[in-house]
Automatic annotation (TrEMBL):
Residues 159-374 form the Glutamate/phenylalanine/leucine/valine/L-tryptophan dehydrogenase C-terminal domain. Substrate binds at K58, G106, S327. GO terms for molecular function: glutamate dehydrogenase (NAD+) activity; nucleotide binding. One of its GO terms (biological process) is L-glutamate catabolic process. This is Glutamate dehydrogenase. InterPro entries: Aminoacid_DH-like_N_sf, Glu/Leu/Phe/Val/Trp_DH_C, Glu/Leu/Phe/Val/Trp_DH_dimer, Glu_DH, NAD(P)-bd_dom_sf. Keywords: NAD, Nucleotide-binding, Oxidoreductase. The active site is at K71 (proton donor). NAD(+) binds at T163. The keyword Mitochondrion does not apply. Belongs to the Glu/Leu/Phe/Val dehydrogenases family. The record marks D107 as: Important for catalysis. It holds the Pfam family ELFV_dehydrog. The lineage of its organism: Bacteria, Bacillati, Bacillota, Clostridia, Peptostreptococcales.
Length: 383
């Protein structure tokens, strides 16, 4: 099968700081593509291109007929006081591509609300093609999308929770497909919007969260963490608040997250966090890729030989793009509970199909997912 390569990659160098970044459009569908922008000191061009490729597959898994995949990445510390200014200059540099059908959102280190604010300040609004701008139904859909993102569900803003709830549904479906009839124990690496909302949904389903890692450390409790309390006290940028810890909680280095005994591991932050250097530490039966590309190819081969299952990233974490698709293009009535059910149902369906086919054909879940959801449309920008 022919290797699919990104359509275009653009490099940017900031004029007022040492930041640099890239925009990669993997494929255009109907002259349009979408994906988030991340900001982190470790971002690389290769990473951005891999993430854009994943977005292409993700939109296919999302059953999109309107959008291809792209990704933005900025090499900079998102905690610095001028991070938003850096983001603004990056978006200004990418404006010609945004106006040609590249729709950028938020990701690790980048708040989607900040992206939308910058778009508004620049007079771009929500990125759209000429055809979308001239379609009254889609213009109404854009208004519905903006309204929806401001609504709350289970205490979270819709855009902040939808990916996490989709990931939780995918985890539950994969766990059951493995023959388990009772919820298992879970360790989550990353406590941002995805990690926190996923913990909340899993807690509601009866899963026991025994470990959560953030940028500063790892909290563990084998009898189960008080997820609701930790979420309520969560600090900016997804950091745990130690004031919410119980006496029986153990605080460890965040690099020790793989050492915690659990049934299910959830990398929900950075890429390549499970690799050939640490894969032997994995104790779980299932890895759920709430983050994009968190398991390297080398590590995955080792996990496969040990019988460890993987719930693939571009299936389980598609909630952020699905909410955009269904609201802007009017696929689902714009009510929070209906949007959440739509995402959860789609993720569950994709996981079920992949696991059934993988079992029948003796293949891995990723092999089957890449066959089923291989992008097949490669249009041009909106020029």
């Amino acid at each position: 099968m022919k290797e699919l390569k990104p359509y275009v990659t653009v490099e940017w160098n900031d004029t007022e700081s040492d930041a640099k970044g890239w925009l990669c459009a993997f494929n255009f569908v109907n002259h349009y593509c979408g994906g988030g922008t991340r900001m982190h000191p470790t971002v690389t061009k290769e990473e951005v291109e891999r993430l854009a490729t994943t977005m292409g597959y993700k939109y296919k898994a999302c059953e999109s007929l309107t959008t291809g995949g792209c990704k933005g990445g900025i090499v900079y510390d998102y905690k610095k006081p001028d991070a938003k200014d850096v983001l603004r200059r990056y978006i200004q540099a990418m404006a010609p591509y945004i106006k040609a059908g590249v729709s950028l959102g938020g990701d690790l280190g980048v708040d989607y609300a900040d992206v939308l604010e910058i778009f508004d300040d620049m007079g771009i609004g929500l990125p759209a093609t000429q055809e979308m701008r001239n379609n009254p139904k889609i213009q109404q859909g854009i208004k519905d999308h903006d309204y929806l993102c401001g609504q709350k569900y289970d205490g979270f803003l819709m855009y902040d929770m939808i990916t996490g709830y989709g990931c939780a549904a995918g985890l539950d479906e994969a766990w059951k497909a493995m023959g388990n009839d009772k919820p298992g124990s879970v360790v989550v690496q990353g406590f941002g919007c995805v990690g926190a909302s996923m913990c909340n949904s899993l807690d509601k389903m009866g899963y026991k969260i025994v470990g959560i890692a953030d940028a500063n450390g790892l909290v563990e409790c084998q009898s189960g963490l008080d997820v609701k309390k930790l979420i309520a006290g969560r600090m900016p940028k997804g950091e745990l608040n130690k004031n919410d810890f119980e006496d029986n909680y153990i605080w460890r280095k965040n690099s020790e997250w793989l050492d915690v005994e659990c049934d299910i591991l959830v990398p929900a932050a950075l890429e390549d966090v499970i690799n050939e250097d640490n894969v032997d530490q994995v104790k779980a039966q299932l890895i759920v890729e709430a983050a994009n590309i968190p398991v390297t190819e080398e590590a995955e081969k080792i996990l496969e030989s040990r019988g460890v299952n993987i719930a693939v990233d571009f299936i389980v974490n598609l909630g952020g793009i699905r909410i955009y698709e269904v609201s802007v293009f009017g696929l689902v009535e714009c009510k929070p509970e209906l949007i959440v059910k739509d995402t959860e149902d789609l993720v569950r369906k994709d996981i079920r199909i992949v696991y059934e086919k993988a079992k029948a054909e003796g293949k891995t879940a990723r092999e089957v997912a890449r066959e089923l959801f291989r992008p097949d449309t490669f249009d041009t920008p909106d020029i």
